[in-house]
Amino acid sequence: MENLETDFERAQYLQTLLIATATGPSGDNRDYQLLRQYFLEKPDTKPLIPSWVRTNRDLAQFWQFIKYKFPSYAERRTFIWSEFAPLLEYLEAGGSVPTDHTVSEILSRFDLESVHNVWEKALERRTSDPEGAITAARTLLETVCKHILDEKGTKYDDKKVDLPQLYHMVSTELNLSPSQYTEEVFKQILGGCSSIVNGLGTLRNRLGDAHGQGKNPVRPAPRHAELAVNLAGSVALFLVETWETRNEKAG
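^ thats the sequence. predicted structure below, dont judge the formating
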């Protein structure tokens, strides 16, 4: 393993260890544990590690997981390749997803316990649980809006208010409502933010895991979850930075 020079090579080797264990003699358990810990300790790669790697601490546990999940070697290989694709694509591209880093840093500073934890859940579920990621994306915006309203002392009915209403209240408090601007370009941008929030609410109701579905359920793909999480993160970042800026000016 000492010959591995890049994170891309390390991720490929980790994938190889898992495929070897799933299709024949087990890979090197020591190397698996070291690589697993290595990628889980890196903030940028932790969300991209498959959830079952996080829960299987050694290759013996992984074998108990994979042998019952898929009966054939071919199915196991395809599953592992698919699950590792986001991590390998990220590393092959140079490991650059600046939005994730920026949002994580600012949301952590804003509220580590609730807001940042929801964001981490959304990131972690994008590939392994798209429905859960979409639900977490909406929860992120709801949490940010309520946090700001609580800080402002603005009253709202927690049991009845929905996400679009929360966002409207927050945007009004922060002077972000399109009606509060005369410049057409700002009205368009802020109107677009409102449309995103409304769309996320609808997407969560249709594709998220918060409601039951009928005989022919609509299943979101990881790309749908990626879009929802990225949009929610961008809007949350905008609200938090606006809130912080206004507080600095008031101070």
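The chain has two domains: 7-92, 98-250.
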